[in-house]
Amino acid sequence: MLYLRRADERGKADFGWLESRHSFSFGHYHDPKHMGFSALRVINDDTVAPGAGFGTHGHRDMEIISYVLSGAIAHKDSMGNQFVVPAGDVQRMTAGTGVTHSEYNDSKTDPLKFLQIWIIPNQRGLEPGYEQKAIPQRGPLTPLVTPDGRDGSLTVHQEASMHRLQLPAGASFALSAEKGVGYLHLLEGDVEANGNHLSAGDGLGTLDEPLSLEAGAGGVTALWFDLPRGDS
Question: Which residue ranges run through the membrane (predicted)?
């Protein structure tokens, strides 16, 4: 079974300083048909104006991943972390028992584009934690976040993994989720996937159906989530 989520059908928010597209229900956007996919709760495609950002706010019991597409995030949190997260870096914050943080566009002249991703953890009340790393591409599919930190990836408190998929023009590739539950989110380029043409911002969830991919003329870059059955 496939779940197709088109980019132009996502939820929208425009606050002037922030333009956001929500793959799943978030904030003022609520659609009971799109509440997440397994433990994948949020994919927000955010564009932040120069010098603007999210002031100090709190989270609990969520694994929060930031993937910077262009620009850089100035991050500060209640654990004492204060870092700049540049394009290509992956950041994971475990909210656990409670954490506050702020995220601002580090540039005063250029917009920041990044994905904010939330994964529901498999435990509540975890100790808050933070990781950040630049992970180079190694082959078509590179693990960025995994339960065990394999191959230099960040860790997440869930039986879920996030990989970066990169294919050159015309390349074919097969994707199969370990537990039969997966979600593909396109970042750049386009691809044919089981008879569906996908481009940037589109998502395709799969339940017990492997994906057969063929990259378009410009190649494709995407995130692939290998997810647990259910939401935990």
Answer: none
Q: What is the largest CA-CA distance in the chain?
A: 48
Q: Is residue 34 part of a domain?
A: yes
Q: How confident is the model at residue 134 (pLDDT cuts 50, 70, 90)?
A: very high
d(CA 30, CA 32): 6
Helix (H), strand (E), coil (C) string for 147-196: CCCHHHCEECCCCCEEEEEEECCCCEEEECCCCCEEEEEEEEEEEEECCE
The answer to whether 224 and 160 are in contact (CB under 8 A) is no
Query: CB neighbours of 8 closer than 8 A, spacing ≥ 6?
Result: 201
Mean pLDDT, range 146-171, rounded to an integer: 98
Residue 197 sits in a domain whose CATH number is 2.60.120.10
pLDDT tens readout for residues 67-84: 999 999 999 999 999 999
Whole-number Å distance between alpha carbons of 9 and 62: 25
Residue 232: inside a domain: no
Please state the domain count of the chain: 1
Domain assignment of residue 215, given as a range:
2-227
Q: Does pTM surpass 0.90?
A: yes
Q: Is 120 in contact with 24 (CB distance < 8 Å)?
A: no
Share of the chain above pLDDT 70, in %: 99
